[in-house]
Design brief:
The longest helix has 36 residues. The chain folds into three domains: 104 residues, 3-Layer(aba) Sandwich (Trna Endonuclease, Chain: A, domain 1); 85 residues, no CATH class; 36 residues, no CATH class. By secondary structure, it is α/β, with parallel strands linked by helices. It is 47% helix and 19% strand.
């Protein structure tokens, strides 16, 4: 459950252009201190991993705010009681839950632009450059391949129903890059004005960015260990 809340916090960082300064984990919470490059404002995102926030926990949170040297405090949790919400609002503390979603902050017109920004960042991370055209990207092949879900039959195994993966053709487009696949899906979803699917596209890209960053940190650690062994 904490991973789900952490994804929300990372999503807010992308939307608001926050840069992470520090991350601390405790038994029941994750604290991420962030800021913007063009601002002196410091923000603390407090992710509570317990199921519901009540007034007692809000009291602890407000005490924490007074102790922390930050300009803004944001709380993430699965649920807040009505009384807890009222207390947070009284203190002008922003909060997000299953009911109040981070994506509600972003205008539909900005959603697609944010997706493209994430795609460009991932292209730079994974391939070292941003393709100038779709044909320049090597993550997609025009030559179709046999659908792995139905084995080329076009039907679900043991049923006289069309395969959902290939739509009954027995073939599917060949995507060797998940970023390119999401990018192409987002183009289609944008054309249809399917906002809920566009939101899913953005969330998928956020998860890939998290994974790529973790892989990069692990590679850097292994490299430093190998240098130490050589020395």
């Amino acid at each position: 459950m904490s991973e789900h809340l952490l994804d929300k916090a990372k999503l807010l960082m992308v939307i608001e252009s926050y840069e992470q300064e520090s991350l601390k984990k405790s038994e029941n919470a994750i604290d991420i201190k962030v800021s913007k490059p063009d601002s002196d404002e410091t923000v603390l995102m407090h992710i509570v991993t317990s199921n519901t926030i009540g007034t007692d926990q809000v009291k602890t949170i407000t005490q924490m705010l007074e102790e922390e040297d930050v300009d803004k405090f944001i709380v993430f949790a699965n649920r807040f009681t009505a009384a807890a919400k009222a207390k947070l609002q009284k203190r002008d503390i922003e909060f997000f839950s299953e009911e109040k979603r981070v994506l509600s902050l972003i205008h539909p017109r900005e959603l697609y632009s944010t997706i493209n920004d994430c795609v460009n960042q991932l292209c730079q991370i994974k391939c070292g450059h941003i393709p100038k055209s779709a044909s320049e990207c090597k993550g997609y092949s025009e030559d179709p391949i046999i659908c792995s879900s139905c084995g080329g039959s076009g039907k679900r195994e043991g049923q006289n129903l069309l395969c959902k993966t290939c739509g009954g053709t027995g073939l599917k487009k060949h995507y060797s890059c998940e970023v390119r696949l999401i990018s192409d899906n987002a183009d289609y979803h944008q054309g249809k004005n399917w906002l809920s699917l566009l939101q899913n596209d953005l969330l998928s890209l956020i998860k890939i960015m998290r994974r790529e960053k973790n892989n990069g940190e692990q590679d850097a650690y292994k490299s430093s260990q190998n240098k130490g062994e050589v020395n």
